[in-house]
């Protein structure tokens, strides 16, 4: 695009049909608010001003919406889309001849579509994005003369029966010459079925002034669908996920079922990555060459190195500190890796094992029913079933250090801070509170004792 634009995103409406306390534009698709999708997609456009019009739930929308050089203007009360853009006029930069107006509730619009719309305007024409729909109920209709020239937009509620037969609807996205927009908006009236100031009325004004109006059809329906209720929200979520799934599959990722795949963030990957059904990826996830993820795993903020295998029903959560899984590691089924879990090569973490803020060196294994919190675990350590690091004294967290090649027996409690020497063996059922020397066997539990011939109590006969 040769020149810069003003970008205006309308996000003041209530979204009554969502039947929600949350403002409509903050409802998420792929974990991200609708309006944020629009802003992120448009971030590469050269904009002299980026303006979001807020109103309903303005404080929440402004607090949760971000973008470079973003400006919010408030529309109170909300008297229609024309009234909304009127509020943005003081914030428009007149050095940008084109003003692009988008809807905050139409999240899947693509950058190239918006760019083409702005180019069609070119600071001189009024450019409208339209869509031909089987059922255009609710949409403003594009009225054309017999020779095809656009005459205006008629809102559904104001349209006659004949006008409602028109299947070409206005998508809610336009690009207008900035100077003319100021003039037209100043002349808007609200003498219509809804008593609102309609942005769409400027089309007839442009025609009356002899300003060319160009209407281009959207490249596909998905890009221009808006969200008005939870059904449409879910529909757009699936369309978004399908788009992401196809992009990944084209890049070589094997999804066993693209309809059962959810990405709520960014997924980067090597080659020969395979993902079974029902997995959710959040935040920033990297899957290196040959990684396999089993069914129904939830993975957030994690790096999985070459050939790591995640068995089904595993939850990896690197929310505050990313999780790292080393090359060739085997995780799950039913494992839980929490923030700061750093696993070396060929580490094995089995069912019902929880690891938090702990480093496990190459070849360490914790295969069953165990907890490792705030621990530093050496190479090839075998951490037995039911072993627990007691890392919390009720006020502070303490570290457990386990040297290379140590064996921790089943059902041990390692009361931190404590150190287990390299090569040590800790007998099953031990409660360890003191340093365990390297190399030996340490047992810290009552000795087994037997009372020979001991009689079990019997019930007394009733008198
Ligand atoms: C609008 C268009 C209609 C188009 C349709 C596409 C007008 C008059 N009509 O109708 O031609 O087919 O979008 O979806 O423009 N908003 C405000 N302030 C307001 C009212 C709305 O900021 O006072 C915002 C909403 O948050 C939303 C957008 O404008 O992002 C569209 O508002 P909505 O009420 O959904 O307009 P429609 O009646 O659907
Ligand atoms: Ca709408």
Blueprint of the fold:
Elements (H helix, E strand, L loop, with lengths): L4 E7 L16 E2 L2 E2 H9 L4 E8 L3 H7 L5 E5 L6 H8 L9 E6 L7 H11 L4 E7 L8 E4 L5 E5 L6 H4 L3 E10 H9 L15 H8 L3 E5 L12 H21 L3 E2 L5 E9 L4 E2 L3 E9 L4 E2 L4 E7 L4 E2 L4 E3 L5 E3 L4 E2 L4 E2 L4 E2 L4 E9 L2 E2 L4 E9 L1 E3 L4 E2 L4 E3 L9 E3 L4 E2 L4 E3 L2 E3 L4 E2 L4 E2 L8 E2 L21
Parallel strand pairs: 1-4, 1-6, 4-5, 7-11, 12-14, 13-15, 14-16, 15-17, 16-18, 17-19, 17-20, 18-21, 19-22, 20-23, 21-24, 22-24, 23-25, 24-26, 25-27, 26-28, 27-30, 28-31, 29-32, 30-33, 31-34, 32-35, 34-36
Antiparallel strand pairs: 2-3, 6-10, 7-10, 8-9
Bound molecules: uridine-diphosphate-N-acetylglucosamine (UD1) and calcium ion.
User: Measured on Cα atoms, how large is the radius of gyration?
Assistant: 31 Å
Beta percentage is 25-35%
- Find the CATH superfamily of the largest domain: Spore Coat Polysaccharide Biosynthesis Protein SpsA, Chain A
CATH level 1 name of the largest domain: Alpha Beta
Write down the overall geometry: elongated
Helix/strand-derived class?
alpha/beta
Bound small molecules, which ones? uridine-diphosphate-N-acetylglucosamine, calcium ion
Number of helices: 8
Largest sheet: 22 strands, parallel
Which fold name is given in CATH as the topology of the largest domain?
Spore Coat Polysaccharide Biosynthesis Protein SpsA, Chain A
Total individual domains: 2
Based on the coordinates given, report the CATH architecture of the largest domain.
Alpha-Beta Complex
Average pLDDT:
97
Low-confidence stretches: none
- Euclidean distance between termini CA atoms: 103 Å
User: What is the strand tally?
Assistant: 36
Helix content: 10-25%
